[in-house]
Structure formats: C-alpha cells, structure tokens
Specification:
- The chain contains twelve helices and no strands.
- By secondary structure, it is mainly α.
- The protein has one domain.
- Helix 2 packs parallel to helix 10, helix 3 packs antiparallel against helix 9 and helix 3 packs parallel to helix 12.
- The longest helix has 47 residues.
- The mean pLDDT is 86.
Length: 341
Amino acid sequence: MIVKKTLSLQSVFEFTGYHLLWLTGWISLVTTIYYISNWSILALPWLPLPLIGTAVVFYIGFKNNQSYDRLWEARKIWSEITNSSRMLATMITNYQSGEPALANGEELRKQIVFRHIAYLYQLREQLLEPTVWEHVSMKSSWGTGFYNRQRRAKLTSSFQEELEAIAGRKYLSVEEKTDLQGYKNKAVQLLNMQTKMIQQLYKDNALNMLQQMEVQAAIRNFYDSQGKMERIKQSPFPREYATFSFIFVCVFIFFLPFGLLGEFERLGAFGIWLTIPVGVIIGWIFVAMEMISDYCENPFEGLRNDTPMLSICREIEINMLQTIGESDIPDLIKPKSHVLI
C-alpha cells in the first residue's frame, strides 16, 4: 500500500511510462504517413471518436468501481481480523472460571496467543501465493509478467530484515511445525489447534462454559474472515469485463490519431504534428485508467497497491503480546520508499 499523499513523477512513470513509447510510435507513424502521402482517407470524421471514447470511459469507470470494491473489501476484512484478534487476547488473558484450575493454565493461554500470531503470518503467506490470472503469473504479455515479478521481488527484498525477524520468532513448537507440513491449508489447521486448546482450558476449569463459548465464537470469526479473503483470492474479477475493457481501450487508441488528424490539419500544414503530443496525452489517460482498475483487482498479489498484510500482522502481534504482558515486543513495520506491504 502506498502511504504518500501524492505520487511522484518517477512513480507515475514507473507505473505507466513505458506505454508512452508505443503510444508515441503509433501516433507518430500515422501522422508521418499522412503528412508524406496526404491521403485524405486517413483523416476520419471527428464525430465517431468522442462516441467511442464516451462508451469506453463509462465502461472503465464501472470496472474501476468494482475493482476498488475488491480492494476495499480486503482491507475491511483485515480490520475485522484485527479487532477479533485483540478481543481474543483480552479474553484469553482475563477470563477466569472462578474454579480451581490446573497449574498449566497460564502456559496454555500464552500458547494460544502465540499460535494465533503464527496463524496471522501463515494466512498472509497463503494469500500471497500467485494465481494464474495475477500479473506476477503472466508469461508473455510484452514483458508485463516479468517486470511485475521483478517489482514484487524488489519490494519483498526491501523488507527482508523484517521478514527474517518474523521467521526468527518461535511462536510454534517444533512438533507443531512438523505436524503442519501434512496439511494443504495450514492456517485452517492452526485454527483447529486453537479450538482444541480452548476446549482443554474448559476441561481444566480455566474457563467456564459461557467464557469458552465466547472464545470459540472469536475463532469462528477467523474462519469467516479467512473464507472471505480466500473468496477474493480464488475468484478472479470476471474475465469478460477485464478483457473487453482492454480491447475497447485498444480500439479507441487505434482510431485516435485518425480522428485527430483532420482537426489539427485546419491549423495549417504543420498543425497536424500537434496530433502526436495531444494524441499521446489522450491515449495515456485512457491507458492509465485501465491500468488502475487492472491492478486493483487483486489485493493479495504482493505489489505496491495491495493490502499491507505484513504491517497489519505486525500491529496485531504487538497488541496481543502487550496484552499478555510480554516484554520482547517488536517494532512496527515502517514504510520503505513510501510503501507498506
């Protein structure tokens, strides 16, 4: 997630700048051919162009709204997890049955908190696994997939110190880590372990029945939230909307120089050269709108526009450790180059 009020020109160029190359090449080619050959057939009437442009703008606007909804929903779900995690730590720490309990009750409570922190980081790791329709998985699309994999690797490497620190914190025992290797969805299995341990606290008289039900309800909330995020991750934005939006932008840009030539020719023989800068600017605006919606479709892709799951997990980790009275508290994740992951 970008945490800066405005993007720098460098950031804008890194995101969309390479499109200026082919836009300039295409519009310059058409303009040069028209200037040399003077083929009047190349100068199309102006009216069809704004009609096409208006239709494309409405379509891209719809796609932008739907893409942003996916991004914002992902952020809201992580907020729900944050609140539920804080409640879980508070309940596990302070709920007492009032009955004589076994001596290992405090250790079990601490294990539940530690295991939940491990669950959060495991869930993040699972959500970052690329799907076939995400940008980092693209094999041959003018090098788009290659560059996005580089961007993701560069972004991850900038937080390498924080990631290594997380890996060094032993929230799971060796036996638990070994047991998890046999499961495809490790995050779900960690929640299953939590349920068993909460039930054990009830059997040991550390929690009464009402308290045990409330804590188990918090675990159910994590199941619900994880399912919602997996739905976003595993359900691509409808490919018809995404594909035809791209096609419509390409059609508009294809006809753009032909529609501009006739208008700028009225300014004189050299007026038609204004077709190039004006056409590039108009085309770039449409391409940028398409790209914004395209990159908002997948909020768990590991790129700059994504939900900052690492930062959220660290904040939850700090809150839960402080709630149970731990002294070894990690620092908050700080932005690197105005980006949080």
